[in-house]
Design goal:
By secondary structure, this protein is an alpha/beta fold. It is 42% helix and 18% strand. A seven-stranded parallel sheet has the order 3-2-1-4-5-6-11, with helices on both faces.
Amino acid sequence: MNMVIINQIKKVYSKKRILVTGASGYLSTNLVYALKDVDCTVVRLSRQGTLPSIKGKAKFIDYQGDIVCRKTWERALEEVDIIYHMAGQTSVYMADERPLDDMGVNVKSMLLLLEVCREKKTKPIVVFSGTSTEVGVPKKNPVNETFLDQPVTLYDLHKLMAENYLKLFCLHGCVSGASLRLTNVYGPGPQSSNSNRDILNKMICKALAGEPLTIYGNGAFIRDYVYIDDIIDAFLSVPMNASKTNGKHFVVGSGEGNSIAQAILLVAERVREKLGISVAVEYVTPPPNRSPIENRSFIADFKRFKQTTGWEPQYSLKKGIDLTIEKYSS
């Protein structure tokens, strides 16, 4: 991050009270660390009772609570200027097994957040962590914001519902905000307990342990892998351009497509090159009953977000993998 952007962040976020939900999670942890040297107050909301202490200029306040409980929001939203809503259930398969629970965590939580904001009449900026799979299985690439949304899983349907609630409340002036539909994010940070998330990070960790890496089928489906630092910069840029991003959703990724096989082979190559660890790469039969969303190819067209905020990714897949290897190996 260059000094111009750092100074802009400090100017916009200085003296602000910022709520980050799902504070023990991957995205939230990285976002909080990006704000630690800003003169602001960061409220970390999590189901966990204890979060790691962070030293910096920012003041940290930790709340423990359930995002499906109204009282949690009434407490956490007090005097908040900016909300990063990143908490949620992230498993496509869990959503299928327990759809009402998924709706509660991923939809009701957003509606509670917005309703409490409306009643308090505080009009904060709400930035939502969406997913590129809300669009469904695209017939062509790259994908931009004009594509028709046709979700093929309950998880993606619920994420789209939450996003649309946010847009509606923005339309009526109760809040302002935007949704960022993220592609496949990777890079240093806490590991997800969900076996279907953070696949590239998990492969890097396996390679560092000398364990074989697995590719389902021929690994030909295309993914847009985007480094975590680029994504955090994207999140931070929304309140910095609040009037231009308000009420919209944006597709955010690297803009580059790599097959799953290419990405995993690159992990093996970089671990061998940097640390001298050779690992096998095995092609295996995919497990039965995989979700249809797994069988997609996706590349983000982030031009609209770039035109709106000036953001663009800074890290190639090779550079991002190298940085992740360095962090995890240390």
